[in-house]
Amino acid sequence: MFTETLTKVLGKMLGVPINHAGYQLTELQGGTLGDVWLVEGIAETANGDKLPYRVVWKTQVKWERPGDPDSWRREYDLYVSDLGTVLSDELRWPECYHAELNGDKIEIWMEYVEGVSGGDLTLEMLELAALEIGRFQGKIFSQPQLLQNLSNFGDTGYLRRDYEQWHTQTYSYEQIIPYVPLPEYRKQALRDGSLQLLEGKSFEYSFLRSATCEIPQHLKQMFLDIDDNMDAIFNKIASLPVVLCHRDFWVENIIYSNGKIRLIDWDTSGWGYLGEDIASLIADDYDFDKFEEC
Hints:
35% helix
């Protein structure tokens, strides 16, 4: 089945009938329950020509993200929809050559995009990404009919649920010690009781309020103030315009290619508040030394 699908995909991608294709698989970055592979090799056409190719093969099995149960199949729903026509050449997802849904599993074959990504993105490239996501959101906001046939999007509660997990995502001592990547002195603090886990709260919540937390006091107080004023802050956020957010808008999902932006991994996309994606872009795993400049 794999070789049959590969032949069909390459025929569509290369624009000629393919008789046979050799292939090599290289694992790319994937999710918890998804696999992403670079498939590359030489395809032989019906008239004997041999053409090199590269294509991405992604599979995803069913799983339930809290508060967003259908996110596991969202990329399939989006790729087979008309949303791609709303995207521009300046900002789009990779071209999809084949997508199928089989029970509790999706399979997507898409364009392999070469370009700059991750920590190699410059601030100018990130500025362009921010500009283009804003243009896309503005287009959808002003023309909501563009998405009238699409229903599988996350809701506006995602941001608050994502924040509140740090209050309620609890682990026992036995779970933390073998699995959570803590320095040895922090594990020792858990063992000897100088760092106590607060009942019903996450490790992060407990650590921030402990005497062993060495975060500078003014930063610690900022975090505590956000917690103490959480309801007021989220009420203020809720007054912002609601736009279609990518919601995983960070450097590993942004590819700068020939002066244009290619955006991958749309499975968490949904309705959110203006600014969510830009805040994520600045704060999520970017070079700390560049925060102020960002």
